[in-house]
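Troubleshooting log. The previous run stalled partway through. Resubmitting the same two chains, unchanged.
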Amino acid sequence: MFEHLVVFKFNDSITPAKQQEFVSQLLALQDEIPGIIDLTAGINVTEETDHIQGFTLGLRVTFEDQEALRAYGPHPAHQAFVASLSGWVENVIVTDFPIPSR
Amino acid sequence: MFEHLVVFKFNDSITPAKQQEFVSQLLALQDEIPGIIDLTAGINVTEETDHIQGFTLGLRVTFEDQEALRAYGPHPAHQAFVASLSGWVENVIVTDFPIPSR
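Second attempt completed without errors. Output:
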């Protein structure tokens, strides 16, 4: 399996409702894109306020393997999400790593 | 369930071996701390190089609920990990969010 973690920082103009719309779009990807084992996304409610730094939305996608992650990038449903971020997003950080079997 | 995503940026002096040591420490937490449903961690191998920004280690912990996350913070095994970061870590970003049941 392969883990894909993304944190999003939005422009100051974003509202909670708009962020929730992005969360809903992300959650829908699980049913639209093959190779996803599990997907979670949500608005950041961390109590570690020093570590928010403006990153107010998190995404975790667990893929079957790295090939599935590579196929996710250009998938039309993912690309539609990426396009919808235009004008809203200020920064995105991504970490990807293999998940060793336990 | 409750999701806890963390990305770590280290000082330039860190080596891959030292980062792997942190990954191993993190993976061990699953067996030491109650309330963890799943935990993954790894050195960032993302191919989205524009989105690394120095964040070279990712962690995902899925907890039973927010109370379990709150108990994880001060747990001695977690605190020992946090102490071991001293002098190595430059920045940490955290996103936490509830996982709606599907």
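Takeaways: The first strand of chain A starts at residue 2 and ends at 10. The mean pLDDT of chain A is 97.
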